[in-house]
Amino acid sequence: MKREIGPNQMKIDALPARASLAAGQMVLGNIDYDERATMRAWESFLADEPKCARDPVHPKHVRSLIHDSWYRSATGGINAQGIEAPLSSDRDEIEYLTRANAELLSAARRSFASLGQLLDGTGAMLVLADSDGVLIDAIGDKKTLHDGMDIHLAIGGKWNEDAVGTNGIGTALWTGEPTFVHAAEHFCAGIKSWTCAGAPIRDPLDGKIIGVVDLSGYSPIFRPHNTALVAATARQIEKALAEQQQEQRTRLLEAFISSAPSYRRKDGLVIVDHRGRAIFCNNVPDGETTEMMDGPMEPGRGRWLMNLPSSGSDADLARALPAHLRSCHITPLKLDGDLRGAALVFPSVPAVSSAAVVHREVNKHLQDAVALIVGESEALQAAIDVACRVARSNSVASLLVEGETGVGKELFARLVHAGSRSTPNAPFIAMNCGAITKDLFGSELFGHVAGAFTGASRDGKPGVFELASGGILSLDEIGEMPLEIQPFLLRVLEERVVHRIGDSRGRPVDVRLVASTNRDIKQEVAAGRFRRDLYYRIGAVSITVPPLRERGDDVLLLAEHFNRKIAAASGEEPLEFSHEALDALLAYRWPGNVRELKNLVGRLHVLARGRDIGLHDLPEEIKSSGSEPSLQSTTSVEELEGTLAEAERQAMKNALEAESGNLSRVARRLGISRPTLYRKLDQYGIRRGFT
């Protein structure tokens, strides 16, 4: 039989949110709210003290959350006839509260500014409380703010359950969840004419509750979406806190980089913030990790490690270190003149070597990968050397390869893969960020579950991070990555956990990232198109692949390399280039770099009428670059004095023998350019060839 609803009862979900509510009727949740019945239950609860002390089963008209809070309030000694919360009006104490909660106040400023204007005239006020339930900010309807003073709902008022019993702020702090407390549900009689909805604010770094945002006013302001509103506001504040922390983290990393030039890549590093919490950790020894974190350190970022002294002197910092961290070197990190963190550096320990057979196999793969990068110029060899060091190192998780389009950046990614794979089947996954539409970026990177969005795969799909786990992920043209995707990439790199779109479950990944770009990332950062913290994460080690125009005689080495490779593939003889053609190749600027040269040689193999390539066979833009007057001497062999000619000829033969026929080294030994060496070899009838 359906129960009749009395004039002072409220049927939950009986009315839409915007409906005009009858007197005494309000939508509170999936329960019936009866003002009189709730009051009677409260009076009965207080009247039977022995029963109260035994924590009885709650009446059907009172939510279990409220009844449990009443029990805590009663057993905690709260005066049920109280009319107000405790209030501190001491100016020094308020100033201390403001300083202690400066980060929370700063993070809430934008949300409070936008909502404050909307609340004027609504009868509602929005308040911010710290982790103890003490109000540190309040905005909203002026009359309500004034009336709130009567119950000390104002800055300095203490509203945790230990101070004033059941209420939106204190009960949200206790439960850790968004909570509303309406009218008669309050424990103290003096605040039963109010309604409030509070939501806890958690520190994004360690998840601890650091405050509460609460919407309060007289009971008629209640709406079912009040709780959703404060919950959304709390999430906005948490997002602002996360942005502040990322900015501080980046600045502390910059401060460390500028203050610790002797830091080595193999050293362990932990950076703590001003509260002594780890905000960055890399390559920390296992023993130190166990002591500090009770588990792996990288996923545990945010754990408390130490108390930072106020002075920031080296002696005070050393004394503040816990006993199990005394093996590290500590450096104070100051921002704007104030101590805002510290760097803990653990001297490197020898890495455990792999089995000899695996080591030999990796070295062979690395040598093969190096051989694919053709060139002898110093700039190129320097880039190869850095890439090999990264490949052999276990402490470097990412590499940034910068260079113009067509210089062969992917070869460096494959070099790192060849030198670092721990198993024969370690994957190499490449993705061109410039070829992915903005809408599909997240799905391609992180994957998605079935039905995550319109057009999603019916069975779900792993992203490139999952596919590359245990190997190398090459992200080409990372400068093209949308700005809104970059924080998610940073999070995966930091936590080594990927969440598919539409899935709350994290999937651990072990990926080394090689990012490449043809843009100047520093300029992109300055222009706001690339996140500074992501740049520091992926660019801890970077190399620049020189453009072909800056690699000198590498042009001729590459031309012959492609010449012989294409000839072998087609079963034909290699092409022969004339002196004029070689001079033109050397003089050309190669805006398309190695890719352009490879395409040219391939086109000559198809279109040339014979095997001899002269200046007339080259494209017009290359011919014009090689048409300048030659720098070689116009003196013929016949005009040379016999002794001088013979001496020069013998010097070339001696140099060829000493350098085992390597023409680049022969040219350097003789102090002449390689094209000049070719001409001299032809002059004296010495057989030449590409090395």
TrEMBL record:
<dbReference type="Pfam" id="PF25601">
    <property type="entry name" value="AAA_lid_14"/>
</dbReference>
<dbReference type="InterPro" id="IPR002078">
    <property type="entry name" value="Sigma_54_int"/>
</dbReference>
<dbReference type="GO" id="GO:0005524">
    <property type="term" value="F:ATP binding"/>
</dbReference>
<dbReference type="GO" id="GO:0043565">
    <property type="term" value="F:sequence-specific DNA binding"/>
</dbReference>
<feature type="domain" description="Sigma-54 factor interaction">
    <location>
        <begin position="373"/>
        <end position="606"/>
    </location>
</feature>
<dbReference type="InterPro" id="IPR025662">
    <property type="entry name" value="Sigma_54_int_dom_ATP-bd_1"/>
</dbReference>
<keyword id="KW-0804">Transcription</keyword>
<dbReference type="InterPro" id="IPR003018">
    <property type="entry name" value="GAF"/>
</dbReference>
<dbReference type="GO" id="GO:0000160">
    <property type="term" value="P:phosphorelay signal transduction system"/>
</dbReference>
<keyword id="KW-0067">ATP-binding</keyword>
<keyword id="KW-0547">Nucleotide-binding</keyword>
<dbReference type="InterPro" id="IPR003593">
    <property type="entry name" value="AAA+_ATPase"/>
</dbReference>
<keyword id="KW-0902">Two-component regulatory system</keyword>
<dbReference type="InterPro" id="IPR058031">
    <property type="entry name" value="AAA_lid_NorR"/>
</dbReference>
<protein>
    <submittedName>
        <fullName>Sigma-54-dependent Fis family transcriptional regulator</fullName>
    </submittedName>
</protein>
<keyword id="KW-0010">Activator</keyword>
<dbReference type="Pfam" id="PF01590">
    <property type="entry name" value="GAF"/>
</dbReference>
<dbReference type="InterPro" id="IPR025944">
    <property type="entry name" value="Sigma_54_int_dom_CS"/>
</dbReference>
<dbReference type="InterPro" id="IPR002197">
    <property type="entry name" value="HTH_Fis"/>
</dbReference>
<dbReference type="InterPro" id="IPR027417">
    <property type="entry name" value="P-loop_NTPase"/>
</dbReference>
<dbReference type="Pfam" id="PF00158">
    <property type="entry name" value="Sigma54_activat"/>
</dbReference>
<dbReference type="InterPro" id="IPR029016">
    <property type="entry name" value="GAF-like_dom_sf"/>
</dbReference>
<dbReference type="InterPro" id="IPR009057">
    <property type="entry name" value="Homeodomain-like_sf"/>
</dbReference>
<dbReference type="GO" id="GO:0006355">
    <property type="term" value="P:regulation of DNA-templated transcription"/>
</dbReference>
<keyword id="KW-0805">Transcription regulation</keyword>
<dbReference type="Pfam" id="PF02954">
    <property type="entry name" value="HTH_8"/>
</dbReference>
<keyword id="KW-0238">DNA-binding</keyword>
